[in-house]
Every structure is written in C-alpha cells, then in structure tokens.
Amino acid sequence: MIKKNIKLTEFILILLFFLVIFSPAVGTLLGLKNVVSESENRNLNKIPQFNFHDQSFADYTKKLEAFLNDHFGFRNNLIELNNNIVISLFNKSPVKKVLIGKEGWLYYWNKSILENYYGMRSYNDRQIKAWIEVYEKRRLWLKERGIDFAFVIAPNKMTIYPEYLPRLINTDNHITQLKQLVTILKEKSAVKVVDLRPPLIAAKPLNQLYYKTDTHWNYYGAFEAYKYTLKEVFPGLSPMCFSTVSHMLEAGSKIDDKTGDLIHMLKGKNTRYPKFHYLEKTCAQEVDYYNIMPDHVGVKPPEKWEKGKPSRYLFVKACKNGKHRAIVFRDSFFSAVEGFFSEHFEVVVYVRKRYDPTIMEYLIEKINPDIVIEQIVERSLGQAPLDEIKFYEQDS
Questions:
Q1: pTM of the prediction?
Q2: Orientation angle between helical segments 177-188 and 125-143, nearest 10 degrees
Q3: Most buried by CB count within 10 Å: which residue of 72, 121, 208, 328?
Q4: Longest Cα pair distance anywhere in the chain, in angstroms?
C-alpha cells in the first residue's frame, strides 16, 4: 500500500514537472496570434522574415529574440502578477508611463512630461519664432478664405490636480511650455487661443473634473471645456444649462478603480476603459456627409472599421437648428466634448489628427466652414509643426 502511494506521488511529481516544463511552450503557440500587450499598452514584435540582401544574421537573431520574448507563454499573466505584487507591497508603479499619486490618483508620465512640469523644456527663441510664424500663417491663410481659426489647449491632469502628485514631486509653480506658449501667442500674434486652465481650475471646488485612474477629464471637465470654448469662439451662442445635463454628467463621471486607461496600463486585461455617454435628446446626428472617407483626410481608422460605418477617427454631425459650420482637428480629449459642442452647428466635421493644411482645400470645398478649430492636449506641445511653413511658401 505504501509502495503504491509512493508510486502515485512520484507520478504526480513527474506530471507536474512536465506541465511546468512544457506549459510555456504551449502558451507560446497559443499566443502567437496576439498582436498587442494589454498589460504594457503596446504592439508586440512580429515574427521576422529573414532577407539575405537587407539584413545581417545578427540583426535577424536580434529581431527573433525580441519576438520570442514578446510571445513567451503566459507572458501577460506573469507581467500582470508582477505588477500587482509591486503595487500592493511597495505602492510603486512598475510601468514607466504611469505615476502613482496620492489617494488613488494616477498620472500619465514620461521624461518629457517630467522635464516640462519642472520648467526644464522652455522654448528657445527659434522655437518661439516658429510657433508664431506657423500659427499666424495658418490664421491668415484661413482668413483669406473667410474662415476663423481657434487653437484650443487641453491641460494635462497634473496641471489641474498637482495636489495629488507624490510627495517627492515638487508642485511649485514652474514655467511650463503651456504657460509660455499661451503668453507668446496672445502677446505676439492675433491667433485665438483658448486656454482651458482658468475655467477648469475655477470649477474644481464644484466637482471632480478628471478621472482618478484615466488620463482624461471626465464629463464634468468636458462640460466646462465645452462651455468655455463655445463662449470664446462664438460669444453669441448660449451653452446648455447644467441642470439639463446634470444626470448624464454624473453618470459619465463615475468610474470604479478598475476602469481607466492608466489602470489598464498598470493591471491589464482585468480592467476596462470608461464608457461613452450620450445626451438623451439631441439635435445633432451623425451623417454621411458628401462621402468624406478616412483616407480622404489622411486618418487611419481602427482595424475593424468597414466602409460605410462610422469611424471615431473621422465623423460628421449635423443639427438642423445650427447656423454655423466647423471643422475640428482634435485628439481623444474632445471625445467627451463633441456631444455638447455639436448641438450648436449645422455641420461639424471631426478629424482625429493635428491640423493638416494639405487637406484643407478639400474640406473647405465640401463643408464651407465658418471656423476651423485645432484642439490638442498639453503634453503634445513639444515642437511647432515646422513642416507646415513649407506648405504656405509653396502656396504663395
């Protein structure tokens, strides 16, 4: 009886040994179709194709090693386990792009954001001149065609909520690129700059304006951005009353601690992104306007996008009660704003990219806008788009 138990124990140990040895290989084979690491929020390396003419054997082996490292069996599970242990035991972020702050607040973080926050990336004279030249040429080019221009800047989360940064981070009032650029453009150009810091800071005592576990403002913050932007670009238009949308704002601004792009970067697949919320009764509806397609304006839609279906990288909204037409170049921060903003326009085209002068003639012919708006987030204010100057030189 004892010998049988020993043999059974040995068999179980041998079985466990082979499971441990071969499970990574099985996991690797099962995971070959994966193209994205959810725990790291990046694309995985693809299997390299060896070409005797274009690369050396050393280059090939380096790429192959990167591929095998990315597709090692149960890699994502092991990364998520490691991340959870580091966060739980040390309250430290195992992800370079996420900073853990006080009271559960998370911040998007990298070297350039840190240096800018400390005032170490101020524009030099050449860069200042470039910003003024590019945006003035853009404004004048549009003005010649009877079109206004506005430049809307969404502040980083830490700009509005520095008080929840880790204690080791100095929260003194440094001169950031945003502060410098707003001052420069207002003093030395005629560009309409919509600086969203003042209205957001003023509204902080009323409601929390940014998600704790996501990069973006919530719907309370988006509503404040919408009201201020509308007032700046069309002073004669009246924004929606808070009371008429308060229920939607509250519902859209509440998320749990497993929701948000930053917590997703930290903890991976067991988390989710905030849901989009929409107004119940709207005038503005998404339309297929003059068959404007993503490839017409140089934006790449998501892989699952099909022709004839709406793309969040390019869409058009129309409201029969609106009297104005607009083109909005925007990033993800405007996603929560556009539902309110669209209610005031006969037609508004949303393009998810930076302002592109090469497609303006095409869009102007299609839409005949009264105004063109470029909205970008503060962390994208690295350098002026110098290539745009060449466009205006050629046009003249």
A1: 0.80
A2: 50
A3: 328
A4: 97
